[in-house]
Automatic annotation (TrEMBL):
CDD domains: F-box_FBXO48. Part of the SCF (SKP1-CUL1-F-box) E3 ubiquitin-protein ligase complex SCF(FBXO9) composed of CUL1, SKP1, RBX1 and FBXO9. Interacts with TTI1 and TELO2; when TTI1 and TELO2 are phosphorylated by CK2. Its main location: cytoplasm. One of its GO terms (cellular component) is cytoplasm. InterPro entries: F-box-like_dom_sf, F-box_dom. Gene3D superfamilies: 1.20.1280.50. It comes from the Eukaryota. It is found in: Cytoplasm. It comes from Ailuropoda melanoleuca. This is F-box only protein. Keywords: Cytoplasm, Ubl conjugation pathway. Residues 1-24 are annotated as: Disordered. Pfam families: F-box-like (PF12937).
Length: 155
């Protein structure tokens, strides 16, 4: 019985040691995390300097960065307004529907890239569906295809 008692005490002690090591690690990480150290306005200013890809990468760095980026809808607004040059109707419709800027960007980012390629004439010389680059296609609605057709007819 004493052997069991000794083992339990040792595991408890080692459990306490592990917990204190984890707490120290978390404390150290917290001290290195500018999101938790700086005022929110400064953190926002830093994140607002990032492009879309960097902002997305920052959001998967750690929980506190993810929460900050995800909950700062105004970080996404300038990127949406840039996409609006290509997808004005889609973004305006999403705004009227009450979507957040982040969700609007997620809904329209890939579409804007493909639509821009079509409108700029990149695919003007496509003669058959077999020559379309499949990996960058994106499903688009009838109105978008109408815009693309109008641009092609003007060429």
């Amino acid at each position: 019985m004493q052997k069991n008692s000794k083992r339990n005490n040792n595991s408890r002690v080692s459990g306490i040691e592990l917990n204190s090591v984890d707490a120290e690690k978390e404390k150290k990480e917290s001290q290195n995390n500018f999101v938790e150290l700086l005022p929110p306005e400064v953190t926002f200013k830093i994140f607002s300097q990032l492009d879309i890809q960097s902002l997305c990468r920052a959001s998967v760095t750690c929980r506190s960065w993810n929460n900050t980026v995800r909950n700062s809808d105004s970080l996404w607004k300038p990127h949406c307004l840039t996409l609006r040059a290509v997808c004005q109707r889609e973004i305006d419709d999403d705004l009227e529907s009450g979507y957040s800027w982040r969700v609007i960007l997620l809904r329209n980012y890939q579409k804007s890239k493909v639509k821009h390629e079509w409108l700029s004439g990149r695919y003007s010389n496509i003669c058959s569906p077999l020559t379309l680059p499949e990996k960058i296609m994106y499903p688009m609605d009838v109105d978008t295809w109408g815009e693309i057709l109008e641009a092609e007819l003007e060429r």
